[in-house]
Amino acid sequence: MTDARTKRPEWWPVARFEFLRVVRRGDFLVSLVLMPLLSVGFSFGAGWVANRAANEPVKLAFHSEAPGVDTKLPALDTLGTITWTTVSGADAEPEALKAAIEARTYDGAILVPAGYAAGDSVRVLAKRSRASWVRTVRPALTEVARLERARGAGVDEAGLAAIDARVPISETLTRPEAKTSKGDTIAALSLVILLLITIYATAAYLAVGITGEKQARVTEVIVSAVRPQAWMDGKLIAFVCVGMLMATVWGGSALLFAVFSSWQLPPAVSPASIAAYLLFLVAGFAFYVSMFATILATIKDMQSTSRVQAYFYFIPVIPFIFIETILDKPESTLAMVLSWIPFFAPMLMPARIALKAAPAWEWIGALLVLIAATHFMRLLAGKAIRVGMLMYGKELNLPELLRWAKE
Amino acid sequence: MNAHTGPVVLSVQGIHKEFKDRVAVDALSFEVRRGEIFGFLGPNGAGKTTSLRMILGITRPDRGAVAFDGAPGVDRARIGYLPEERGLFEDQKVLDTLGYLGELRGMSPRVAREAGTLWLERLGLADRAKSKINELSKGMQQKIQFAGAVLHAPTLAILDEPFSGLDPLNQELFLSVVRELRDQGTTVLFSAHQLNLVERLCDRFLLIARGKEVLTGSLDAMRATITGGASETLVLEIAARNGGPSPDAGTARMAFERAGVAGAVKVESAGPGRLRIEAGLPPAHDVGPALAILGGPYAITRVETAPISLHEIYLRAVRTAMGESALEEEAPRD
Predict the structure, then answer these.
(1) ipTM of the complex
(2) Does the beta carbon of B89 lie under 8 angstroms from any beta carbon of chain A?
(3) 3-class DSSP state for residue A110?
(4) How many angstroms separate the CA atoms of A50 and A54, rounded?
(5) What is the CATH number of domain A57-159?
(6) From the CA of A241, how many Å to the nearest CA of chain B?
(7) Rounded (10°) CA dihedral A288, A290, A295, A301
(8) Does pLDDT of A251 surpass 70?
(9) Which residues on B lie below 8 Å from A226 (Cβ)?
């Protein structure tokens, strides 16, 4: 048997075993298929619900002391499914209208005073605050008032249109290559979201893969056969592959859905951008998996662990706090600094690349920093599993881990 | 090849390990030679597991060195390890688990599975190859763990408490399997608390307590060391004859002194008018004079001789090293 020993790297059997162990699980296969189906289902479901809500008929009582409003307002084509019943006399009294609304005769009521165009308040009666029909009626009333004010000032509709006409702007970029397409932004944000979903989906299997073995007391057998670092490397490679498998299936499903649902190809994205996004996807995934593995290696038992480690699980979400700022000002100092930090780079740098705000030297530099940080994190994870395994009766905390890491 | 004089497979030189509040292993040195079964014994907390982990390279000694087959460090692919703290992948099938453990030791997947199949047949578990681990009894899982530790035919197998959880039939099976391993060229470093089994299996021993060597050598050598040359135990029971005087401890001791047994003679009551005398004897020692003295006034109701057991050696050596109170807490299971 000695002659049959192979020359494969130490981590290879670990990576193979761990990968197959996860992908052969029934729940993994179910989630792999279910996620795209659920996403499509939620998309259609949310659209259907929103459509139903938007087309729900709204019945309003209307009384105006200003002439002409009762005909101009319903004539606007922005009111959608709102229907009007003009009321007057006793029926237009607030108390009577309140009773009618409570009795579901109307969904609400609008009382327009004679001086509404001069600034007098329009009174609205509704069952609850911030009713959606109020948001629809408000701009319509403003438009009617605007027309009334223009007429009072002797300006007809054609004159008003001339006043409102937008000033044309011709844009000339100092760097023509910085022109961005909608496709770039969509592709970058899609990959960022894909990274976030897959990292958390993989984290569940990673938790079982690391703490489960400690609880089953298998770890000592394994690290007597392979170096703890090789064992951890095998696990990390396996879980990166698991994550990339999920990303491929889910991302591919999303792409197919986008193509077939709109019967058109997605907006063009440059091959260089796609390459950069994929590099950050893989490197970012490896970094987060290594970070989670380090944390998990310090945990003795998931049931009894202190919850301090759980806060590290939120790190991949933190970049979303900044994403709006990054999208708005991708060349700002804040955007540049944050997108170089390994904890945030996998999310923020693709966004800046999409907006053509990160030249090649910058994203390549950030990628190298991310790879170096991943390498450090994998070494820390290897150290944590070796030290954590020997800590009986207590969990390894981060200061202890850093102290042991210097050994 | 004589196991006691074969080449050194494992050399441990002055390994020392301290944890925050205690010394776990204190300058421990020993050698294990090719083809022998070496018993590594000691009470709970003596430092056995820490020593084994340093030998395996799982932890580093603060001082000292380990050499395997003349080279520093360990060759993990040539060592098999069955740890005391052990478990298996409960969601995996038996043969898949063995295949994986073999692959970790450098075997190809095919060869590892073939070796796993052979070991399952040897251990009577061939029909469970496709069962999941969590479907097996504790004893069966123990066998799978053992097979996983040795299926790659290691040069050195380190077995820590291999008998725990096994019934007597399976204990006997393990004894024969370990001997087979030795016969096939695997050197075995063995740690267990079942001293009656260890005594039958091991060629040489190292007994440690509180991280230090207490006693080492073959069973005969340890007997000689611990008893000052006495290797047999004589157990004698005497009683008063009808109407005769009751035996007393002073007379019993005097009789053995006259027979030239001046060392350890333990006398205790065995009931009303009865005494139990236990004396350590050198090999082939004539106890006739003592029996003649005692057989006159008293009835000799029991005479028994037996070699001093490993259990007795262990107790005496550890008592000496740790004191009685410590031993009560650390008593071995026999």
Answers:
(1) 0.76
(2) yes
(3) strand
(4) 6
(5) 3.40.190.10
(6) 19
(7) 110
(8) yes
(9) 76, 104
Phi, psi of B41 (to 5 degrees): -120, 160
B115 in contact with A, Cβ within 8 Å: yes
Of residues A2, A218, A386, nearest to B88 (C-beta): A218
CB-CB: which of B107, B145, B149 is closest to A5? B107
Give the pLDDT means over successive 10-residue stretches in chain B (334 positions). Answer: 73 91 91 94 90 89 93 89 84 94 93 96 94 90 93 94 88 93 93 89 92 90 78 86 85 82 79 87 80 87 85 85 58 42
Residues of chain B with CATH 3.30.70.1150: 232-307
User: How many angstroms separate the CA atoms of A402 and B302, rounded?
Assistant: 67
Q: Would you tell me which CATH number, out of the four given (3.40.50.300, 3.40.50.800, 3.40.1160.10, 2.60.40.1740), belongs to the domain B8-225?
A: 3.40.50.300
pLDDT tens-digit readout, A212-229: 776 667 888 888 889 889
> B97 vs chain A: nearest CA distance in angstroms?
10
Instruction: Give A41's contacts (C-beta < 8 A, 6+ positions apart).
Output: none
Which fold would CATH assign to domain B232-307?
A: Alpha-Beta Plaits (3.30.70)
Integer Cα distance of A147 and B58 in angstroms: 84
B148: closest CA of chain A, how far (Å): 9
Classify residue A89 by its DSSP letter: G
Q: How many CB pairs under 8 A join A and B?
A: 79
Give how far A387 is from chain B: nearest CA, Å: 9
CA nearest A276: which of A343, A201, A325, A339?
Answer: A339
Q: What is the 3-state secondary structure (H, E, C) of A19-53?
A: HHHHHCCHHHHHHHHHHHHHHHHHHHHHHHHHHHH
For residues B126 and B137, give the distance between their C-alpha atoms in angstroms, rounded to a whole number.
Answer: 15
Backbone angles phi, psi at B80, to 5 degrees: -110, 145
First-residue to last-residue Cα distance in chain A: 36
What is the chain B residue with the closest CA to A407?
B60
Which regions of chain B carry the CATH code 3.40.50.300?
Answer: 8-225
Amino acid at site A358: A
pLDDT at A40: 75
Chain A residue numbers with beta carbons less than 8 Å from the beta carbon of B81 are: 220-221, 224-225
Indicate the domain borders of chain A.
Answer: 57-159, 179-405
Question: Is the minimum CB–CB distance between A303 and chain B shorter than 8 Å?
Answer: no
Q: A345, A341, A326, A351: which is closest to A284 by C-alpha?
A: A345
Q: Which of these ranges, A267-281, A339-353, A369-383, has the smallest mean pLDDT?
A: A267-281
A82 close to A58: Cβ distance less than 8 angstroms = yes
Which residue has tokens 């999941």?
B132
- pTM, rounded to two decimals: 0.75
In sequence order, the β-bridge partners of residue B23 are: B18
